[in-house]
């Protein structure tokens, strides 16, 4: 059974710079998001090397990472700031 995913088309140069920047940003803020970060980094590497499937852009992995930031890390971070 094929899995469903969301695909967003971005120009190739935008893909690399946006995902690289986002990955670096989240890596610096979310040391507890190892699993999600790992999947996102693997996907980004695979796509950059041309080994991903046609049209793959790692947006699904990014949303998993973002979800972890919102639901797992943000409450811990904001507790320390308040």
TrEMBL record:
One of its GO terms (cellular component) is mitochondrial inner membrane. The keyword Amino-acid biosynthesis does not apply. InterPro entries: Ubol_cytC_Rdtase_hinge_dom, Ubol_cytC_Rdtase_hinge_dom_sf. Transmembrane segments: none annotated. The keyword Transcription regulation does not apply. Its main location: mitochondrion. Residues 35-81 form the Ubiquinol-cytochrome C reductase hinge domain. Keywords: Electron transport, Membrane, Mitochondrion, Mitochondrion inner membrane, Respiratory chain, Transport. It is found in: Mitochondrion inner membrane. Belongs to the UQCRH/QCR6 family. This is Ubiquinol-cytochrome C reductase hinge domain-containing protein. It comes from Kalmanozyma brasiliensis (strain GHG001). The lineage of its organism: Eukaryota, Fungi, Dikarya, Basidiomycota, Ustilaginomycotina.
